[in-house]
Amino acid sequence: SVLMGLFGDYATDSFAYTNHMIDLTTIDGRDAILLDVVYKEPKLNNALADAIVAIDADTGDIIQTADGDDYFMWLDEVGTMSETQSDQIFKIQYRVITDSEAASSAEDVQQFHQNGLTRFTAADGTTVMAATHKTDAEAGLIK
Question: CA-based Rg of the chain, rounded to a whole angstrom?
């Protein structure tokens, strides 16, 4: 599948799937679908984590991020694995979980788990991607 092709280096045990969040938007004049993808993250002891993939609605092709990546990974882009509070300012926090929790597919132990996703244009013309993160009780706005 497209997702396994994208997350082959990250998805262990052939594990990557779309979750309950999608957003329909326009990117560079193309109709696009933003997908929430859940995968096993090796840096998190294979705990489930979330990323975003943009798909061209007409062609099925992947739309790369502004940085030229095929997906946006919360951990790599705006996350932190630091447990120091001062390091977590303007970052999405990592939650320490046990090995048995990391092996679980339960939503409450997923890292960087988005629960809401949208993309909008602010009054000043800035395009913003916004997501809420369930367990962290926070919203992230990405320009």
Answer: 15
Q: What tokens does 113 get?
A: 């788990």
94-125 residue pLDDT tens:
676 677 766 666 666 677 777 788 899 999 99
Reported pTM? 0.78
**Angle 78-41-9 from CA coordinates, rounded to 5°:** 105
- Beta-carbon count within 10 A of 65 CB: 18
In sequence order, the β-bridge partners of residue 39 are 16, 49
CA distances from 143 to 24, 46, 125, 140 (A): 17, 29, 11, 10
Other residues' Cβ atoms within 10 Å of the Cβ of residue 139: 12
Judge contact between 94 and 111, C-beta under 8 A. Answer: yes
Can you list the alpha helix ranges (DSSP code H) found in 1-143? 2-6, 74-78, 99-102
Distance CA 107, CA 96 (A): 15
Q: What is the pLDDT at residue 140?
A: 81
pLDDT at 11: 47
